[in-house]
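Attaching the record inline, Q. Sequence:
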Amino acid sequence: MTLKNLRRSCQELQTQVKRRFSPPASCPQRQEAPLSDQRQGGPLRICRIEGDRGLCAKMAAMGLYPGREAELIHPECGGQCLLKIEDCTLCLDKSTSECIVVTNAAETSKATAI
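Structure, as predicted:
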């Protein structure tokens, strides 16, 4: 692989990562809050992941990325919350859930339907 091809591959990867982790247009800015602030269970939409590259990559590997819908099964209790995505249930600690910005999925779908 030549240096030119390597640079092109890196630029393509960078573009894909930016596209995947940029906030989707369907998340109204005024209704966003960290996952750690959610006190009621129910459907949520992930707006963005705030953190370093390592955290973003880890969350993406677990299926957590902007635009994805999830269900909060158990809000934070003692620093951990349970989040269901499709057939998987994830237990997230407080520091991780503080980096995940979400909005209510029901409110988001109403706002986009209007």
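The beta strands are 33-34, 42-49, 69-74, 80-85, 88-93, 100-104. The two ends are 50 Å apart (CA to CA).

More tomorrow.
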